[in-house]
Structures are given as C-alpha cells and as structure tokens.
Specification:
It is built from six helices and 13 strands. It has about 250 residues and is of the alpha+beta class.
Length: about 250
C-alpha cells in the first residue's frame, strides 16, 4: 500500500492527501493541548471520540442545509473531507460568560449573555491567536465585509443547531469556536464550516449539575477527559460500536 502524502499536522489532527482531487483525509490524534500548547498530554481514545462527535455534528449541519467540509467517516479515527482554503480566523460564539471573556470583563462565569456574541481571533499560534476587531480583518485582507456578514450568519445557524441538540440531552452550550473555509464551484465562491466540532472546540456544561464535559476538564485538572467526552457521546448515542450517528434524533431528557 502506497504511503499517504502528509499535507498538514496540527496539535490535534493530521491531514493527508485524499483519494480524489479536492479531498483530504482528516486523522484525529489522541494528543491534548492547552494554554497555547504549554500543557500537553496523550489521552487514550480522545481521537476516536472526537472523530465520531465531529461526524455527528457536521452531518447534522449538512442535513439542515448548513454547508460543511465533511463528506464521510472512513474509520474510527479518520474522515474524508473537502479541501478548502481556510479563512485565517477562529470564529468564537459565546452564549454564556466563561474562560477568557469572563476574565477580560470581570464577569461571573456562567452568566447568560444578552444575546450570542461573536468574536474573531487571528489564527497564529506564535501570537497566541489574538482577538481582532472586524476593522483589522478587513484592512489586512483576511476577509471582506461580505465574507464577515456571511460568516456571522453561518456561525449563528451553527449555534442555533448546536444549542438545541445539546439542550435536548441536558447539556448547556456555553460557547464554541469554528473555522470557515472557502470553496469554489466554478467561478462561484462560498463559505462552509471546516476543521471540527467536538468537545475540544466547545464548552459544554451539564444543565443540572454544571459539570464540565469539555476540554476545561484537562485545562483545569478536573478529572478524566476521556470520561467527560464519553459522557457527551453516550448522551448523543454516538459511542463507537453503537452504529451510525443519528444527529437529527437526539435523546430528550425530561
């Protein structure tokens, strides 16, 4: 079997050249990092869970007409995705005050925000992914005003879907981040959701207890990260071995 061509390796994933032009294979690693990779660990099973959970969310978004790069899951750790040109921004959607926002503004963690707030950070590990205003984004040519309008609309649709699905299984969607990619259909460019959606990129709290079910478990040494991600997968019925994900039919909690 021919050795696959490595395209990119990040902190949590590896991208390989795909079997068809315009495709990539995305491999989910067991590596966990925090504080701009100052804290590192290998968490057994994390990659498998994130692959399944990202498949679940991306498939659900595709099903409701929110375009993503996801094509299909290949195996327990890999999925086939569409190759995109990544917009060099992390798009952060916040429903409740937490993390850096709570610290910056002196807000009580867990305070519900008046409305979903969208922030942008410039994707640069060496700079610590700094927050940037829209004026910077447009001035430096990272995105146009129309791009930003489309990205905000896309992010709010993802938020509506994600918040509803998580609420249905007793989980509060505190915040999350996505990346967006450009694709071309002939001469027409459009923006789609890329990268991944998983507990690595979301803050997820149990509605009743406030228990954290996301990467804050690792950041703050709150317990076993695999157990937290497994609980999310269990509630969504996407545990490996349970068959295919059913993103349009979450289990409801009375």
């Amino acid at each position: 079997m021919a050795r696959r061509k490595l395209v990119y390796e990040g902190k949590a994933k590896i991208l390989y050249e795909g079997p068809e032009p315009g495709t990539l294979v995305q491999y989910f690693k067991d590596d966990a990092t925090a504080f701009n990779a100052e804290k590192k660990a290998t968490i057994e099973g994390k990659g498998v869970l994130n692959n399944r959970l990202s498949e679940f969310f991306m498939t659900g978004l595709n099903n409701i007409g929110v375009p993503t790069h996801f094509l299909k899951r290949i195996n327990m750790r890999e999925q086939l995705i569409r190759a995109v040109e990544i917009v060099p921004l992390e798009v952060i959607v916040r429903n409740f005050a937490a993390g850096s926002m709570a610290k910056r503004l002196g807000l009580e963690e867990g305070m519900q925000l008046p409305r979903p707030i969208i922030e942008f950070s410039y994707k640069d590990d060496a700079l610590g992914d700094p927050l940037v205003p829209e004026e910077y984004i447009i001035a430096f040519g990272w995105a146009t005003q129309q791009d930003l309008d489309d990205i905000v609309a896309l992010a709010l649709r993802v938020n509506d879907y994600m918040a509803g699905v998580m609420y249905g299984v007793g989980i509060k969607l505190v915040d999350f981040k996505i990346e967006v990619g450009r694709v071309w259909d002939n001469e027409f460019m459009r923006l789609i959701v890329a990268d991944e959606i998983s507990p690595d990129s979301c803050r997820l709290w149990d509605i009743q207890t406030g228990q954290k079910l996301d990467k804050d478990v690792f950041r703050r040494d709150l317990g076993n990260l695999t157990d937290a991600y497994t609980e999310v997968a269990r509630r969504l019925k996407v545990l490996p071995g349970n068959g295919h994900a059913t993103p349009d039919k979450p289990t409801l909690i009375n």
